[in-house]
Records
---
Amino acid sequence: MAKKKKKKLNSKFVALIALGLAMAMLLAVGREIMTTLQLRKQMAEAKEKLAQMQEENELLVEEKTKLQDPDYVESYARSNYMFSKDGEQIFFLPDKTDNKKNESNK
């Protein structure tokens, strides 16, 4: 009878150890899944940022190409910085939106 109790106790002990190992493995798998999900999220964010940076780079390369053209530089300076040619006068006309604002304030 003592052998049966000892065998039963050993089998319970082995089952408990097996259960502990299984739980440890499940915990490790759960951590790996969480890490994988976080890495996928980071990867998606990085790809999105890369796409934005590539688009910005294309715009900057295009702007660089345009700025190498003297006619474009002159046109850009005249429109954005109000440069004029010799003897040319620049007149500022109010925007239509400015007129509407002034009328609504009366």
---
Amino acid sequence: MTTPSLKYAYFPGCVAQGACRELYQSTNAIANALNIELLELKKASCCGSGTFKEDSQFLEDTVNARNIALAEELNLPLLTHCSTCQGVIGHVDERLKRSQTEDTEYFNRVNGLLKQEGCSPYRGSTEVKHLLWVLVADYGLDAIREQVTRSLQGLNCAAFYGCYLLRGQQEPWENPYQPESMERMFETLGATAIYYRGRTQCCGWPLSSYATEESFKMAGGHLQEAIAAGADCLVTPCPLCHLNLDSRQPEVARVVNRPLGLPVLHLPQLLGLALGLDPEVLGLDRHVVSVAPVLAKLGIDG
């Protein structure tokens, strides 16, 4: 099989360039390994993570119309690796594409502000794609299987999809209640997919700034369910979920009064391990919850 040659306008988002720098690091590492060309949108702005629309839908639409227009300038699909960014930008893209024919006054208002600020207009000529979907649908699991140099056999992986990836858009990429793309990826890499109730639910991050205990109880419930189901690790395509499930796991454990210690990996980190990449290259040394048990199970020196 010929290895696909793919190119995308890369929207890294805020969290992957700050608190979850390892996601940015591992995304670039697996893209290089798979010959996926990423042209980073250096001028892109924060998608707003759903908060802009609380004040103004027009604000969210205009900010993200500009982000999409940056990808359109390159005639490339916009690639995200954050389920929240995907949900927000993808939904704006859906809404503006409809408004081109159904609400031209609003569409022209958005582009009018972009023109006023010296930005390119939104044309509705491209797609917004999450890294997970690119790997499964564009690159293809069969092609990924051919690139695996280190089977993840014996590793029990539990997916944590994140709300926006499944339900952020009106036309979801897969069944939002019974998704299988992550589990199919695990099996392609040789790992065992673990199913548990919380895999399609909210991690609690949106509540964390004003209802911290409730947020941590949600996260703790999911972690305990995954542990009880036999998971060696959680794997998420969302850095905000990662923050609540990994970075705050010690605090979560105190709130639920249970020992946890479940490693939480970003999707490209898991794939990178199967591609034979070094754990340090993938930023696996940056996690709050040690990934040493995962590496030990795979016979990898951390």
